[in-house]
Amino acid sequence: MNGPQGKLDVPEAVSAIARKLQDRGYDTWAVGGAIRDALLGESRGDWDLATAAPPDAVRKLFRPSYPVGIQFGTVAVRGIDGQVYEVTTFRRDIETDGRHAVVEYAETLDEDLARRDFTINAIAYDPLEHKYHDPFSGWQDLQSKVLRCVGTPATRFAEDYLRVLRGLRFAGRFGLEIEPSTWKALTDAVGNLPRLSGERVREEIVKVMAAAAPSAGLALYRDSGALAVLLPELSRLGASGWEMLLATIDRLPGHRQHLRQVALLAPVGPAVEETMKRLRFSNAELRDVQALSGALEVPLPDADARAGRRWLREVGPERARDTLRLHFAGERASGERQAERIRLAAVARQLLGVLRRREPVTLADLAIDGNDLKELGLRPGPEFGRILDLCLDAVIDDPEMNEHERLIEYARNRIER
Ligand code: ATP
Ligand code: MG
Fold this sequence. Notes:
Layout: H1 12-23, E1 28-31, H2 33-39, E2 48-51, H3 55-61, E3 65-69, E4 74-78, E5 84-89, E6 91-96, E7 101-105, H4 109-114, E8 124-126, E9 131-133, H5 138-143, E10 146-147, H6 153-159, H7 162-174, E11 177-178, H8 180-189, H9 198-209, H10 215-224, H11 226-230, H12 232-235, H13 239-251, H14 257-265, H15 272-278, H16 283-297, H17 305-315, H18 320-333, H19 338-356, H20 370-375, H21 382-397, H22 404-412
Parallel strand pairs: 2-5, 10-11
Antiparallel strand pairs: 1-2, 1-8, 3-4, 4-5, 6-7, 8-9
Helix pairs in contact: 6-8, 7-9, 7-10, 13-14, 13-18, 14-16, 15-16, 17-19, 18-19
The structure holds adenosine-5'-triphosphate and magnesium ion.
């Protein structure tokens, strides 16, 4: 068999945990995503261990340790490096309803690997002997860039429909071809995705968006039909609108996840509140998407300071930079002509200049406030707001107007008696 070769760079703390368990006679392996990623040359901190030791034995052997998902047999153990590693007792699925699996402890590593979703996630590594155990040829699939279910695809998806989304995510992230029978079963299963909770779907979408280039995973969401089921609001986009959306998201940096989220969800339009609530996004995330989608609708100003101040007033100075980032990404995505790009850069320079010089663009920037209007004999009410807005108009036109005395005078002349 064509198995993986070579030592993996396993943290000493992981080997130490494995050694302690092995010394007590418990078969113990490193498993899952960390092996996959290490074989691909990506390093990561979260190594998981699978062991024949029952959870109680793990808890006794390692202090401090605490149960994280005791119903799943997972114990969190603090390694000698201070990091926390998950040690999970071998298990097998005994019953499933498509939403979550009921598991029981198993005797052997083979049983444990058989319940894993994809062959690339079912490779085990012995960090002491530097041996692999790869009964489903996950290494071969990794090398030939194939995503394949462990076992019979239709059965595996029916056990847990989250695997549909996990599969799309892994295929997108690693550029894998989905093997035909896995793909057939996956597309047959997409109709069951609404049975997953909104939280789990959201978590998956967020993970797709965290890839270096989310477009690959998102394209698979669309091609498989998952998008039409989970985000029908977006599947209505035409082919060119969708391509633009993907290209825009790829051009937003990964460390600005919230902007990617805005780019993805802004095209939903007025229904975005319902969509984001369905997927259990937080209210703060909803407000962020709504505010920035609104800001994107405000046409960009000409490259002069006065127009810039007007735009900043409407968009809100605190949202200006993010709005510009979204415009830049959209523009690079569309491959706009160079003239357009130069124009956007000039506009951005103007706007940033206004912000840097702290020119007045909001009511809070005015050199007068409500108390001053009261002193002018005005009672709080709609007239208050009208006068302050007029003052803001005036200082946006001419920032030199933003002096206490001048504005008091200006306001006094505009009060209707
Ligand atoms: P990443 O954390 O980078 O998203 P991962 O492979 O580590 O990828 P986890 O969700 O952390 O994914 O799960 C760890 C391992 O547990 C997986 O590699 C896989 O072997 C197994 N696993 C996780 N979820 C499922 C599932 N729904 N069905 C079957 N096996 C699963
Ligand atoms: Mg993981």
